[in-house]
Structure formats: structure tokens, C-alpha cells
Amino acid sequence: MYERPRPLHDDESSEPKGSNGELIGSQAAKPPLLPTPDVLADLAEQSVRFEAATPEEILGWAIERFGDKFTMATAFGPEGMTILEMLSKISPKTWVFNLDTGYQFAETLALRDRVADLYGIEVELLKPELTVSEYEKLHGGPLYVINPNQCCGDRKLTVLKKAACGMHAWASAIRRDQSPDRALAPIVGWDKKFHLVKVSPLANWTKKQVWDRILDRKIPYNPLHDEGFPSIGCKPCTKAVGFGEDERAGRWSGTAKTECGLHTQE
Ligand code: SF4
After folding, report:
1. Tell me: the pLDDT tens digits for 54-78?
2. Would the CB of 148 count as within 6 Å of ligand 1?
3. Residue whose C-alpha is closest to residue 23's, from 35, 33, 12
4. Is the peptide bond before 31 cis (omega within 30 degrees of 0)?
5. Percent of the chain with pLDDT over 90
6. Which of 42, 119, 192, 232 could be a cystine partner for 88, CB 3.0 to 4.6 Å?
């Protein structure tokens, strides 16, 4: 596992800061990476070029360009598992982490060890500051019932922001055809929320392409997918879906919420 770069403490940029005025994402890297017009134009150009590239070529570019300042977040979904298999061949030492909210399924967490055994990638489980019982005590019960946006904010986004500090780029496993929020995702672009380059090597893949790869390469996957859970997040906010339903219909089912906020730009 790569050592994480140590964040800077000097104010080296005039970019926007975190809520407490601290440097965020690639501002805190040494050297920092800032979204100058040249950087943004280059990313846009690469992204168009990568529409015809394989995910392995895209990952290879990211690893060569960002080195140990390239990381990946995974929830061990089918797309994430597919990228982990690719990474095991290209760069098994890339730092990969999981946002371990404390509410994940045991079946999800079991994949962490499968990945370590099979691919030699030790996915780091990053936890929020408060345990589930401390958090629920603080809020008088589980917040996912009455305020899932704050719960995702506290237990996912805040943890990712901390992980992003000092990095230049992160890989996500989103596909454009998963949801309207993801439909316009570039393959390579600037992620304003986390102040990082965001690389989505499977952005233009379909669900079928992902599952063909999983079956072809015998990539392990979450057994809950065979029990009617096409998309798996935290246990309290994930339900099985019926035949023909949207693949993300089981996430925060019965509410207007469709995303945890990691892949939206608001
Ligand atoms: S998915 Fe549900 S339990 Fe998990 S962090 Fe979001 S609101 Fe909380």
C-alpha cells in the first residue's frame, strides 16, 4: 500500500477552501494541483480521447500521470470489483479505500478480504469519527430515517474529503447509464466537490459489459446481487428490487433521495 502524501499546512493557493478554511483535495498535495484553464482543457481533451479507449488504458494513463496521488474509492459493487481486477494487473499498490459507514452489509465487507487474497490489494476501510452507537446516541436514533442526507454527509462525504486531502485524482466506478445524475459524467474531469481530478474508466460501459467481464474473468462479486439487489449501499437504505425495476430503485427506496452525494456536484 502506498504511503499517503502528507497534506500541506501552508496556504499555497487562492482556491476555495473547506468549510473551516482548510486546504482540500489537491490543494493540500505537494505539489498542489489546481484547476487552471490549461489543466481543465487538458482533462477535457483527454476525456474525449478516452471515449474510444479501454478502461485499462484509462487507468494506465491515470497511474502514470498521478502516481501515488491517484486513489480509488470502492463500495465493492460490480463495477468496482471490475476495476479492482484491472488495477491488480496494472498497479496493485494504488491506494484503494472503502467508506465504511458502519452500516454496510456483512457480505460487502467480506469482499475486502477476497480482494486482498485474490488480487493483493488491501482495501483500507475508512471510518467516520463516531461509531454507529455514538452517532445514533448523539442524534437520538438513526439519522438515516429522518435525515439521510446528513447521515451520508457525515458518514461518507466527510470521510472522503479527509481521504482526498493531499491526493491529485480519484477513480470512481460510475457508469453513465446508472442514473440521470451520472448520465453526463466525463471519463476524466474536474471534481469541484472534492477538489480532485475524477477518473471514471467505466463511464461509457453498460451493465452487460461489466457483468460479461465479471463472468469471463471469474471476478468475485457480492452474493446479494443474486438475491435481487442490483445496487448495494448501506443495509438500512438498500432494498431488493422487483423484475424490470431500475437498478438503483432499491437505494433510499420510498424517498426522493437517489444519490449519496459522492457523484453529484451540488
Ligand atoms: S446510505 Fe443510509 S446509512 Fe449509509 S450513510 Fe447514507 S443515509 Fe446513512
Report:
1. 999 999 999 999 999 999 999 999 9
2. yes
3. 12
4. yes
5. 74
6. 119
